[in-house]
Design goal:
31% of the residues lie in helices and 27% in strands. With 416 residues, the chain is α+β, with helices and mostly antiparallel strands. The strands form four sheets. It has an eight-stranded antiparallel beta sheet with strand order 13-12-9-10-11-14-18-16, sandwiched between helices. Strands 3-2-1-4 form a four-stranded parallel beta sheet, sandwiched between helices. A four-stranded antiparallel beta sheet has the order 5-8-6-7, with helices on both faces. It is globular, with a radius of gyration of 21 Å. Pfam families: ATP-grasp_4, LAL_C2.
Length: 416
């Protein structure tokens, strides 16, 4: 009997995207890859090669349209047994298409709410979930009024981006005005999707940030653990590392998990993995945002190394009608540290064979190349690589990742 298709809607070019394709292939599923333009993946030769080699069918269609995707899927030469995406921008359209085709998936209404940071905030606030003071602002004329309400410093950000794109700390009214003006002038996000002009102006929260990794299936949400996040310096909020599980006392990590669960319930989240970000402030845990998919930044790898639960594999199982296995089989720790560059031209890249001296390193990549002009990263896409460790404890994994990352410094040409 011919295996059914599992359809993937677009993909990240590294991390979860390519891993999910390989896992589906290893499970013997036929892969259909839906994209608006396959050529855009050619910017990463490894990703392009992976897609072309693993996908049994590649369908180019409007991946912002459930109708177009349904037609493309029904035109495939075989049964479609599941549909999913690991890419934040396409969660709502994937959910809507799955519903149209009678496939397992997240409630489309919940997907749409979670995808819009402003709407998610409003819904969660209405359900008593602690959130920052915030307003969606579509006109500069009301900004002074909003700043009087929200206060300074504030954070200005788009409601529909990911990977810290466009998230900016503003210490003055002029900075907030300038940043919001850019968002008002923007008619599309970084993936070309149409957006309502404007942005979220919110209270700047102070404290340690964590993410809560969950999986929902059959009316039950399982908390797989809490991840400690290492953020880079303001005015940007680029993530430079993660450690799983969190080293915080159970009282604090448990409080963060309860906020995450309340937020998921508020938006009606009912299927699959979620990655919920929470800030631990002096007034208690406060919701940052809900990501209605597995975390990026190799967080699923951290969870797998630490607990034995493969988030991506279980997502594929659930998406194709199976029952995910979410019981941990081990208790270890894992960590990742990302490489940040600076303004300048790369003169020399590190020799990664030095990592052979670190037995807990399980994965790494240096993306910088000689002659490349870099800057301090303003979003996750501008980082220069990573090193990932797995150890008996999260603390050991974290200190090993720090030590290994320190050996991967990029050298720069002398400044003129």
């Amino acid at each position: 009997m011919t295996a059914p298709f599992i359809a993937f809607v677009e993909s990240n070019m590294t991390g979860t995207g390519m891993q999910a394709l390989r896992l589906a292939h290893d499970r013997g599923l036929r892969i259909a890859f839906l994209t608006s333009d396959l050529r855009k993946y050619d910017s990463d030769p490894d990703a392009a090669r992976t897609i072309r080699s693993l996908a049994d069918e590649i369908a180019e269609c409007d991946t912002n349209s459930p109708e177009a995707m349904e037609k493309a899927l029904r035109d495939l030469p075989g049964l479609v047994g599941g549909l999913m995406t690991v890419m934040e921008y396409f969660v709502p359209v994937a959910a809507a298409t799955a519903r149209r085709m009678g496939l397992p998936g997240l409630d489309p209404a919940a997907a749409a709410i979670a995808r819009d940071k402003g709407t998610a905030r409003t819904v969660c606030q209405d359900h008593g979930v602690p959130v920052p003071r915030f307003r969606f602002v579509g006109s500069l004329e009301v900004l002074d009024e909003v700043l009087d309400e929200v206060g300074l410093p504030c954070v200005v950000k788009p409601v529909d981006e990911s990977a810290s794109i466009g998230v900016t700390l503003c210490r003055t009214r002029q900075q907030a005005y300038d940043r919001l003006a850019e968002l008002i002038d923007s008619r599309a996000n970084s993936k070309g999707q149409q957006r309502v002009p404007g942005g979220l102006v919110e209270e700047c929260l102070f404290g340690h940030e964590v993410s809560v990794e969950t999986f929902t299936h059959g009316g039950r949400t399982v908390v797989l653990g809490v991840t400690d996040k290492l953020l880079g310096p303001v005015p940007h909020f680029v993530e430079l590392g993660h450690t799983f599980p969190s080293g915080l006392p159970e009282e604090r990590s448990g409080a963060a998990a309860r906020v995450a669960l309340a937020a998921l319930e508020a938006v009606g989240f009912d299927f699959g993995p979620a990655h919920v970000e929470v800030k631990l402030t002096a007034r208690g845990p406060v919701l940052i945002e809900i990501n209605a998919r597995a975390g990026g930044d190799f967080v699923p790898d951290l969870v797998r190394h630490a607990t034995g639960v493969g988030l991506l594999e279980q997502t594929i199982i659930a998406a194709t009608g199976g029952t995910p296995q979410l019981q941990p089989s081990r208790q270890r720790g894992a960590a990742i540290r990302f490489l940040a560059g600076r303004a300048g031209v790369v003169a020399e890249v590190p020799d990664t064979t030095v990592l052979d001296r670190f037995p807990t390193v399980v994965a790494s990549r240096v993306k910088a190349v000689v002659g490349q002009r870099t800057t301090w990263p303003a979003n996750s896409h501008e980082r220069l690589g990573y090193v990932l460790t797995s150890a008996e404890t999260a603390y050991q994994a974290a200190v090993d990742a720090d030590a290994a990352a320190a050996q991967l410094a990029v050298s720069y040409e002398p400044e003129p």
